[in-house]
Amino acid sequence: MIEAVDLSHTYGSAGLMPTAAVTNVTLTIPDNCFAAIIGSTGSGKTTLIQHFNGLLKPSSGKVLIDGEDINATKQTRKESRRKVGMVFQYPEHQLFEETIEKDVAFGCRNLGLSDAVCRDRAREALGRVGMDFDEFAQRSPFELSGGQMRRVAIAGVLSMRPSTLVLDEPTAGLDPRGRTELLDLLDALRAEGDTIVLVSHSMEDVAERAKLVFVMHDGKLAAQGEPREIFMDADRLRAVGLSPPSMVLLAEELAKLGIVVPRGIMEVDEMKEAIITLMRSEGGTNEQ
Fold this sequence. Notes:
This protein has helices at residues 45-49, 74-83, 100-110, 115-128, 133-136, 146-158, 176-191, 203-209, 227-232, 234-239, 246-256, 268-281, and strands at residues 2-11, 19-29, 34-38, 60-65, 68-69, 84-87, 164-168, 195-199, 212-217, 220-225. The chain is of the alpha/beta class. It has 2 domains: 2-244, P-loop containing nucleotide triphosphate hydrolases (Rossmann fold), CATH 3.40.50.300; 245-288, no CATH class. β9 and β10 (220-225) form a beta hairpin.
């Protein structure tokens, strides 16, 4: 479990104007949860998540993992990086080894584990992202498609066996198929017991996948709750610079035409069924 308690972070050094990036954020991300952090550009999302494994140290407040302050000692900070794996935007840009096996095992080797253990972990991690070790291990990562390269980069984090995976805009730049495959992968990892923390500008992705949503605005936590609760309040989303998911926008347009569907619909199939039900109730046919 990750907890932020009155967490604040200010950028700036001697001679420079201090800039508050995160201010008094308190939140809890439970174990085995698919959580999402949303907010407009500059809202503090990336700064916030960089505290979750000690990449940044709070100016004030605390970050707790399983109840322990990760910044209490150097050892607790180091341990937090074993528990919380971070995947930044365009993680494939961080690939550099000559083979996929070496790239995936790089973080494992940095933990001081043996070559044999790291090879076993690379095999396991590639399997978890849907890539056969025997087929891909000795290939260059630069021969892969964009989606495959991103999977390899994620496997490199998984090889260190974190219990929580934090991803900053992991679907950026992917085509629709690649985006769906990656989100399906994250769902599968959560089903296996991992905690997923997704930072995203895609309200559709968040509405369809997340179970808990945190909204950041001007460095502060503006709202938190289940996706339906967050996205039903379209005016509040617009006030913090976010566009509601497409199904919420469609419901608004239908309402202007006098067609009122149930509130809280987030997915296309739900909307389809709601519209069919309305048509039937008004004397329509199945073909309509």
